[in-house]
Design brief:
Nuclear Transport Factor 2, Chain: A; alpha+beta
């Protein structure tokens, strides 16, 4: 396992949870591509500005992001695939939401270059080209 790649992921997660979008932006490669299957706008989001705009939209919709139960399920080449529980509260409704998320990400130059949020570990493995 590439500890360096894992460290970049945890730094990104911690900055997002803290609402530090500037710090998170510095961890994104200028040519980053991101997709998400479990939201109405799946992307692709191309480049730092597009990714940050989507995440800032989520920050308006949800308060108090927490990440738990992180499990790395694959680490090959530049790809890491992991699962986690994302806990938030609706900004307007106050309703709490817990979602089990899988994500595949690829690093380039110690920055997030590709990020693919999925609903299942198999989908995330497929997004990384590491599936069946």
């Amino acid at each position: 396992m590439s500890q360096e790649n894992v460290d970049v992921y945890f730094a990104a997660k911690d900055r997002l949870a803290a609402g530090d979008h500037d710090g998170f932006t510095r961890l994104l490669h200028p040519d980053v591509t991101a997709t998400v299957t479990n939201f109405p706008e799946p992307g692709p989001f191309l480049g730092r500005e597009a990714v940050i705009a989507r995440l800032e939209g989520l920050a308006i919709e949800f308060d108090g992001q927490r990440y738990s139960d992180v499990e790395i399920i694959a680490d090959r080449d530049d790809w890491i695939v992991l699962t986690y529980r994302w806990s938030v509260q609706g900004s307007r409704s106050g309703v709490g939401v817990d979602a089990d998320i899988a994500v595949a990400f690829r690093l380039k130059d110690r920055q997030l270059f590709e990020v693919h949020w999925r609903e299942s570990r198999d989908e995330a493995l497929d997004a990384a080209g590491l599936g069946r």
